[in-house]
Design a protein that fits this description.
With 1003 residues, the protein is mainly alpha-helical. It is 60% helix and 5% strand.
Length: 1003
């Protein structure tokens, strides 16, 4: 077998680098078969090989282990192939390579916490038997010794973890040992801090002050990650000292712990010690007495703080003081569920966690996202807190034990508990393996293929020889997330409707009256009407009804999250009835959380999408895969239109298909927009492509109709203008156009002009005239040619020569301004090129006279005074109002007229591209350009949202709170933030207007 094939078989990603490292002098003479046998054990053989070569360079004796039988070398290869960071640690500290001189155990035992504590204290010269150990060394030497001992403990644990026969089974022990190791490090850091504090305060006083370190979160629960902030709370015992002086010393001790753990030193810091969960958070004192803690929790603590205290455990310092703290807060924890609004506050906290996920990370989150670890933890903790007051068996800190207790007590069904437990362990294992590689705090699924391939191998046990593909890993992860989310919904929000839900034996049945009460509580305006829809969907014994009974409890909540859940439920019923006999519909909603949730949110938040889905229900199939929501480009649409036209010679049939394609693609774009897959600029471009394909199709059909009575005498070009030309349209936009033609050889100008007029008239009617049967829910494309020469008084279509003559003799500056956004849309390519060549010198002049600038300003002022609808609030008019679209576009166009002749960067039909170019050229201050772009984007988004919400175009920021709420959600605001959108728009438009007046008018 060639070396390259061997490397591939071993799982290498970079063959060239692999060959180069295999040829390193450090590996000369080693048995290649033994070497490859070891490398095949590594999750990342690339990393294992590179670390091995560097280690042998520092410690040549390692060659013997590298060439040993796999039974002996397995710990080394597994660790080096799973953790680049631990490899770097061993390169810095080769004296710890003896960690590999152990035999891998398929069922390893966790380390004794007392031994870990003694080892870490010994590293800084402290006596583990002392009541309050004090280190013999301080400063950077102590920090380095402590951190080195900690990382040696990590290597020992990694050997056990990576060699365990069943990583999922061993996972709770890993979390426990990591927490014990962190506790030992903090104990040693406290010993160092005591020694350092004695340099600033009396040694007797320092010895008199007791400090208990309370572990919170995962450390307190003994389910810590490989790298994580360690959340703590500090409790101080003044001893015989005054409280103020004791608190000063206690604060010094706590600060010293952080310094020893994470300050800059030759051995890198371990992790952050985070005390922000203490009473009053960052605003509160770093340390408090036990009495002060009790007073705070009894009088001022919020509900979330008791949820956090569920994990509280003394991990270092004075054990007796720590136990007293645990005993003091326990009654408060288990009575907290009786506080008013407690359940709602826990649910709200879960939502807040999700809110803070950056958009770019949302789909990669293992911990915080939907179906992630937080869904498991919040569900388990809420059930513990609600039922734990009466059932002490639920008072467990770690998640896996709590799940088992909830199952044993009947609070979760056995099968659900097993699935929840397995999913939690799998997600934690992913998190552990990802973090272990670089010992970096992250909860994101990697995106690079080599990293995914290594991770796929790393989560398998040592008895598996396969190397799964990245896709199989991602598929397993997605399945797990779906399972977690489904379990979360079923356990956290148990089925409530006996007519709609398939209840398990553990679930209690509710009466229809109670179900109506739940619907009312969810926000349905007509609970009785909602019940009728539910009964219609779930009645009978068909498979369809059974699946609806499973789905509806969750879907009702998702529908209720929308602005109009009643309309959403009605639309869902209509879509379901239309697709009820299909084999895929309910299966898609059952198996894909994304599809079901997207559908519910769209139906209850968008009249436009709901109407389109009701007449095109098969489009629901797109919801299961993001790839199906990628807008279809112009070329692909035109190819489809051409194929359909070739099979349907009848003009009406051809136009029906063309308009149906346009309706379908508008729906696809709207769904992708709703799902957050497109930004406003991409929406505009996608809609423009769809209109372009439809117009070109109408042009070809019109030419066919006209040519049926004789030969074609001219070629016609449709030129997009305005926002259509800039590819910046919204869902309610007309198509501003001009029509150009050129006579074909052998025909007179008069003949050509007459035929061009008939073709152009046909285009508009073909796109707008009613068809039989009607195309339901279609938003017809209105063609507006008012920007042509001489406006409404001019010819609808002109020849290219006529355009040239007109622009040479009579063109006004506003027409040059209008041409800035002219873009050939449909028709003859040669004519399009010649037209662009004609207009470029007009729209990009070498210079603009002061008189022309004054004229543009005069026209803009006139537009503001005459075209703003009577009674409209200028501050709320998105197009013509203060700081609206018109202000931004006119300012940009003035700059283009003045400077595009000398600066080709400004020669674009896109407002945002021209704005960015103007800023780059120094024609606009970058902050002004950013503000104008923000105002333009927000106004454009609101215009589109108006159409999406109620299906009607509007240029006004809504005044109705309900309409404003719907628009705000479409614009990306969280529920209940309609006022924030209103304030944001009024603020940014006011500031944009100030920039406009300063730059455009020179005020």
């Amino acid at each position: 077998m060639s070396l390259a094939r061997r490397l591939i078989a071993a799982g290498f990603s970079d063959l060239e680098k692999g060959e180069r490292f295999l040829a390193a002098r450090e590996l000369e003479g080693l048995d290649q078969d033994r070497l490859f046998a070891g490398l095949q054990l590594a999750a990342s053989p690339d990393t294992a090989l590179q670390s091995l070569v560097r280690l042998i360079e520092k410690h040549p004796q390692l060659r013997e282990l590298a060439a040993a039988e796999p039974e002996a070398s397995e710990p080394m290869y597994r660790v080096l192939g799973s953790s680049e960071a631990l490899g770097e640690f061993l390169i810095r500290h080769p004296e710890h390579l003896d960690a590999f001189e152990v035999r891998a155990s398929p069922e390893p035992l966790p380390a004794d916490p007392g031994r870990l504590r003694a080892t870490l204290l010994q590293s800084v010269g402290a006596d583990a038997r002392a009541a309050r150990p004090v280190a013999a060394v301080t400063g950077v030497d102590a920090y380095a010794a402590l951190r080195t001992a900690y990382r040696r403990g990590l290597v020992d644990l990694a050997v056990k973890d990576l060699c365990a026969a069943d990583p999922l089974d061993f996972l709770p022990s890993v979390g426990g040992e990591l927490a014990d190791l962190a506790a030992a490090a903090i104990e040693a850091a406290l010993a160092v801090s005591r020694a350092e504090a004695a340099e600033q305060h009396s040694a007797a006083d320092v010895a008199d002050v007791g400090l208990a370190v309370i572990g919170m979160g995962k450390c307190g629960a003994r389910e810590l990650n490989y790298i994580s902030d360690v959340d703590v709370i500090y409790v101080v015992d003044p001893g015989s000292l005054e409280d103020a002086h004791a608190n000063t010393i206690g604060t010094a001790l706590a600060s010293g712990i952080s310094r020893a753990i994470s300050s800059v030193a030759r051995e890198p810091g371990l992790w952050e010690v985070d005390a922000n969960l203490r009473p009053e958070g960052k605003s509160g004192p770093l340390v408090r007495t036990l009495a002060s803690h009790e007073t705070y929790y009894a009088r001022w603590a919020e509900s979330w703080e008791f949820q956090a205290l569920l994990k509280a455990r003394c991990i270092a310092g004075d054990a007796a003081l720590g136990r007293a703290y645990e005993e003091a807060v326990a009654p408060l924890i288990w009575s907290s569920a009786g506080r008013e609004g407690f359940v709602e506050s826990v649910q709200a906290m879960r939502r807040r966690v999700t809110e803070h996920i950056p958009a770019a990370e949302e789909q990669r989150q293992i911990k915080l996202g939907r179906g992630g670890l937080r869904d498991v933890e919040f569900t388990v903790q809420l059930l513990q807190l609600v039922h734990g007051k009466a059932d002490e068996s639920l008072r467990r800190r770690d998640t896996t034990s709590a799940i088992a207790a909830l199952s044993a007590g009947g609070y979760i069904g056995r099968s659900d508990a097993a699935a929840f437990d397995n999913a939690y362990r799998y997600l934690r294992l992913l998190e552990h393996r990802i973090q272990l590689f670089q010992l970096r705090r992250t909860h994101l699924m990697p995106v690079a293929e080599p990293a995914l391939r290594s991770l796929a191998k790393a989560v398998l046990g040592p008895f598996s020889n396969e190397r799964p593909s990245p896709d199989s890993l991602l598929s397993a992860w997605q399945r797990t997330k779906r399972s977690v989310r489904e379990l979360h919904e079923r356990i956290f929000y148990r089925p409530l409707l006996n007519t709609a839900a398939k209840l398990s034996s553990e679930d209690a049945k509710l009466t229809p009256e109670a179900a109506q009460g739940r619907l009312a509580a969810l926000g349905y305006r007509d609970p009785q009407g909602a019940m009728r829809h539910i009964e219609a969907l779930t009645g009978g014994v068909s498979r369809r009804a059974a699946l609806q009974r499973q789905l509806l409890p969750i879907l009702l909540d998702w529908l209720a999250e929308g602005v109009d859940p009643d309309a959403g439920l009605l639309a869902f019923r209509r879509v379901s009835e239309a697709l009820g006999t299909t084999h895929w519909y309910l299966g898609l909603l059952r198996d894909s959380n994304a599809a079901a949730e997207r559908l519910c949110h769209m139906l209850s938040n968008s009249r436009l999408i709901a109407d389109l889905l009701e007449v095109s229900p098969e489009s629901v199939a797109w919801l299961g895969q993001d790839k199906d929501l990628v807008p279809v480009g112009f070329e692909a649409q035109w190819q489809e239109i051409t194929a359909k036209m070739s099979r349907h010679a009848d003009p009406e049939s051809a136009m029906r298909l063309i308009r149906l394609i346009r309706r379908r693609e508008i729906l696809r774009i709207a769904i992708a927009d709703s799902a957050g897959l497109l930004d406003q600029e991409k929406v505009g471009m996608a809609l423009a492509d769809t209109d372009r394909a439809a117009v070109l199709g109408a042009l070809r059909v019109a030419e066919g109709i006209v040519s049926a009575g004789g030969p074609l005498k001219t070629t016609v070009l449709v030129v997009a203008m305005g926002r259509q030309g800039g590819r910046e349209i919204g869902y309610g936009s007309d198509a501003d156009v001009m029509y150009v033609h050129r006579a074909l050889p052998g025909f007179s100008e008069a003949e050509a002009q007459e035929q061009a007029g008939r073709i152009v008239a046909r285009i508009s009617s073909l796109l707008t005239q009613p068809l039989k049967p009607a195309i339901m829910a279609e938003r017809v494309l209105q063609m507006d040619a008012d920007l042509r020469p001489e406006g409404k008084n001019g010819a609808m279509v002109r020849s290219l020569d006529s355009f040239a003559e007109y622009y040479r003799r009579w063109s006004l500056v506003w027409e040059a301004q209008a041409l800035l956004r002219a873009r050939p849309m449909a028709g003859d390519d040669a004519l399009a090129a010649d037209f662009v060549k004609l207009i470029d010198p007009i729209r990009y002049p070498e210079s603009v006279s002061e008189q022309d600038v004054r004229e543009i300003r005069r026209i803009k002022a006139r537009v503001e005074s005459e075209r703003l609808p009577r009674g409209a609030d200028p501050a709320r008019h998105l197009k013509l109002g203060r700081g609206g679209l018109s202000d931004v576009e006119w300012l940009v166009q003035l700059l283009q007229l003045q400077h595009a002749g000398k600066h080709p960067e400004l020669r674009t039909t896109s407002t945002l591209e021209a704005l960015a170019a103007a800023a780059e050229l120094g024609l606009l201050d970058s902050s002004d350009a950013g503000l104008l772009a923000e105002a333009w984007r927000l106004a454009s988004r609101i215009r589109s949202a108006n159409v999406i919400w109620n299906g009607k175009a509007s240029d006004l920021l809504p005044s109705s709170r309900r309409d404003l709420e719907a628009v705000a959600r479409w614009c990306g605001y969280e529920p209940g933030n309609a006022t924030a959108l209103e304030e944001d728009y009024l603020r940014v438009s006011r500031r944009a207007r100030a920039v406009f007046e300063r730059v455009f008018y020179g005020h």
